Amino acid sequence: MKMKRVGEAQSVRSDKKRDVKPTIPMDLKDILYRISYITYTPVKDVCQQMAMLVLHDRRTIEQLSKYFKRDLIMGNTMFVGNITNKTMEKRPKVRGDRVTIRFTQKEFESVALLSYALDCTPSRTVAILLDLSMKSVRFVNAYIKRYLTEELNESQMRELRAILRYVNKVGESYFSWASLLEHVLAEVGSPVSRIKEAVSDFIDMKWRE
């Protein structure tokens, strides 16, 4: 019998979307909405992208493997599950709220495979992935950096990298891509409809003085 792999697609429409409605803690939802706000991106898209970043991170899968009840193949690695392994909590202990996220069929299949290994529902699995995404700054940083790379031109990204290197070298606190973006928006002050305008204004105001 052929085993499925994480990310392996079946013969279905590539544009088909699947809704998943995880229940997440209120404080986690608040942070996701903050990321949505500073990146001018719908929260459902933020959640989808953050979940995928975590799902395809080998280090995270290795950490989760201690909960695997069934086997999972990721890339060229097979993580062996066992019914006696620790059980992942089925629902959050604190008060939560439901969010709706849309995944492509291929993405949903990857979520479903991880759900099968964890013996959880897809909605609970996505809630776990979102929780993990906020517990490691590298995921938020990766999301913000990718967002900026897609939105800004090469010259603007070069300027921002220079700013980030400089403030981390001489400043009293460390700036990530996420905190730099938040700082840019706070410094610009006036309403802007696109991040390109905010970055351009910030560079003109602070960097080239």
Describe this structure in words.
- The structure is a single chain.
- The protein is mainly alpha-helical and 209 residues long.
- Helix content is 56%, strand content 10%.
- It has 9 helices and 6 strands; from the N terminus they run ββαααββββαααααα.
- The strands form 3 sheets. A two-stranded antiparallel sheet has the order 1-6. A two-stranded antiparallel sheet has the order 2-5. A two-stranded antiparallel sheet has the order 3-4.
- Helix 2 packs across helix 5.
- The model has no long low-confidence stretch (mean pLDDT 83).
Strand order of the largest sheet: 1-6
Distance between the termini: 66 Å
Number of helices: 9
Q: Tell me about the largest β-sheet.
A: 2 strands, antiparallel
Structural class by sheet pairing and helices: mainly alpha
Helix content: 55-70%
Low-confidence stretches: none
CA-based shape: elongated
What is the H/E order? Answer: EEHHHEEEEHHHHHH
Q: What is this structure, in a nutshell?
A:
The chain has 209 residues and is mainly alpha-helical. 56% of the residues lie in helices and 10% in strands. The protein has helices at 26-38, 43-55, 58-64, 105-118, 122-135, 137-151, 154-170, 177-188, 195-207, and strands at residues 17-20, 23-25, 72-74, 77-79, 96-98, 101-104.
